[in-house]
Amino acid sequence: MNFFRNLQRRERLFVVGAGALLVLFLIFKLTIDPMLKRSADLDRQLVTARRQLGELRTMQQEYQRQKSVVASINSQLKKQPNFAIFSHLEELAGQTGIRNKIVHMKPTVSAPNDVYNEESVEVKMEGVTLAQLVQYLHQVENSPQLLKIKRLEMKPRFDNRQILTAIFRVSAFTLKEGTS
What we know:
This protein is of the alpha+beta class.
């Protein structure tokens, strides 16, 4: 204390002011600055959480849309009468007038699934025009039975580029027993 009393008034004011500034600096650095940093971190987390919530809502909507599509497909499969895919494809070929263009129809192996049975047939046609093939494939895809064209390969003939050889796979689906 003697040291402080020996100082002149201006020096005492300077020491007191420096001490006050030091105390204010320490208060800022030890309490206010961490709170401001924490607030900024929380603001960033809030922005991230809102973005994630938007993505989650988008995913939820997509899930609901996919769920309704699956429900629609399952409903369609339940109503679908049993049919033989080979005879159905031949019948459609007869309706489009290209039954005689079928070279072969052979069953193919499909990947197992927990919910659906899949029966696939590989069809090879030769000497068809693009218009005939498109008409036939359109009838296959839009038939009352749930059929899907899974693979399609077309090659034009060398002597007439308008005539095609086509190989494609058609799959028919049914629900497995015990699934709803």
